């Protein structure tokens, strides 16, 4: 290998490492499962539950905001659990939600914020941020 090839390979590996590390700092969006949710709560992880429906225009308006916040390195590793309003009625009831487009933030097992029908980026961000607060 030439010096140039070696340097380019090294730079590419370094760039990949930085990208991978950045992705590790961001949160993720996953389908709700009771076991995974409880595991995250027991670990004290910041969590947002997104009760959504595919037909809901408010949910559609929330989606790009939630996607952006979940990917935000500034907020850290907030996990968003999506609950299907139509197919997971038992879970919707367990969270005490009456409507789709409900967002519920938790820090560990403590609920820190809740909203229904909110589509304002700044207030949804505040909800996400509340999940990062340390509980007493």
TrEMBL record:
Signal sequence interval, chain numbering: 1-26
Residue ranges constituting the Thioredoxin domain according to the UniProt record: 7-133
One function term, GO molecular function aspect: isomerase activity
PROSITE patterns the UniProt entry points to: THIOREDOXIN_1, THIOREDOXIN_2
Isomerase in keyword set: yes
Keyword line: Isomerase, Redox-active center, Signal
InterPro entries documented for this protein: Thioredoxin-like_sf, Thioredoxin_CS, Thioredoxin_domain, Thioredoxin_H-type-like
Protein name according to UniProt: Thiol-disulfide isomerase/thioredoxin
Record lineage: Bacteria, Pseudomonadati, Pseudomonadota, Alphaproteobacteria, Hyphomicrobiales
């Amino acid at each position: 290998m030439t010096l140039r090839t070696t340097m380019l390979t090294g730079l590419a590996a370094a760039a990949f490492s930085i990208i991978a590390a950045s992705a590790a700092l961001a949160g993720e969006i996953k389908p709700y499962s009771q076991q995974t949710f409880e595991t995250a709560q027991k670990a004290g992880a910041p969590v947002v539950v997104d009760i959504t429906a595919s037909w809901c225009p408010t949910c559609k308006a929330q989606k790009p905001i939630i996607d952006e916040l979940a990917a935000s390195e500034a907020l850290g590793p907030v996990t968003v659990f999506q609950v299907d309003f139509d197919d997971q009625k038992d879970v919707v009831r367990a969270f005490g939600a009456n409507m789709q487009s409900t967002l519920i933030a938790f820090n560990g097992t403590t609920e820190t914020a809740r909203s229904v029908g909110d589509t304002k980026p700044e207030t949804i961000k505040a909800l996400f941020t509340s999940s990062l607060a340390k509980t007493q």
